[in-house]
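Budget justification, computational time. The allocation requested in the original proposal was used primarily to generate structure tokens for proteins on the priority list. As evidence of use, we reproduce two of the resulting records. The first is shown immediately below.
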Amino acid sequence: MANQYGPTKLQKVETPGWKLDCQRGLMAFAAWWLAALLVSGLLPSMSPNLPISPLWMANSLAYGTVLAIGLKPIPYFGLAALTWNVARGDAPLEILAGTAAFVLLMFFVVEFSGWLGRHVERDRARRLLRVPIIAIMSATLFTLLGI
């Protein structure tokens, strides 16, 4: 006999929602790594003395995903950036600073988008303000940190 009050607590735990979140997270991780590899292969380091690779494509993919989906993929993108920095052989302080800045910027993207949604009435104005300000903040923070 079927339960007329909906699924039981045990059935709710067994639903594939967390599996779907994990799959999406792994896709986010893999997409960020693929974008980082492509950009690093196409555009090598800026100079031999300053081994900064332009990861703007991978980071913009992360920012766009966070804008579209929300906060759920942030840990996966953070883990992707962390493993990327470790694989490159960066110093521990650079790894910590770069990963922390990237994760904080993703939270900034979500909060700033929400703030624009509450304070700017026109949809077109929100979209036109969102992208350049996020790009300026990202470039400024990573430039100031030197990573």
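The second record produced under the same allocation is shown here.
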Amino acid sequence: MYIEKFIEYFNKNRDKRFFCFKTFFGETIAQQTPPSEKKILSLVNNFDQIVNQTKDAIIVNLYLNKSFPFTEKFMTSTVANFIYVFVEKNPISSNYEAKLIFLLHLSKMKLSFDDFDLMFDKTGSIEIVNFQSNGLIDLFSKIKSNSTIMKALNCVICDFSGKSVEKSDLDSISIEFFKSRIPGLNGFAGLRKVYVSSSRIEELIAEIKYRKYTQDDEKILLDLYFVRLILHEVTREKKNAFFFAIKRVIFKNVKKLNVS
């Protein structure tokens, strides 16, 4: 397994100030028959079935990711935080699942060295929380049953894969809230679920209040925030791949979706 080699290599070099992925890749993966394409995991109902596959996929995807700055030197302490996610003491917890899936998304992203450095350092801060917001949960249910959104999803999915979206595709999706110290992270798609950042919601609400937007404007922004995450989740499910949402987005004409 690639992840075992990665952890072993790191432990041998953990006393050094800097860690270079290029050296690790050159001494391990490149010495074998290197994988030629990024790994895409099969969707299953139980994450425990694909934990080891997920770990390996993260390492392979970083190796194949042309934007990953593998020649740069990361602080060893930063890579240690990255490693801690893989060796967490409670590998069946919901926090563990969320962190690994986030890293799977990250391994395929086009980011700068500073971005990867930040994500490696902060991924361990992801923590599933019981976020008290009945309004958002109700909104999530309305989004899943909204006919206008279903039509929009069908258009997008058909363009990508030629497949259609059934109501059952949305009915099986649940929502989990998490907090983290990752700046600008709105949420990401998991297995039959959407992870939504309560930290980001609180930041958005605070910013809206600071800028003195109206309550209607606040609702509009939050409505489309959820619509976007649902779109990512269903697209992922139909394409048998993972997607992930980061960065702030500005939405207009939300009321046309009739979610209220």
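A brief technical remark on that second record: The two ends are 49 Å apart (CA to CA).
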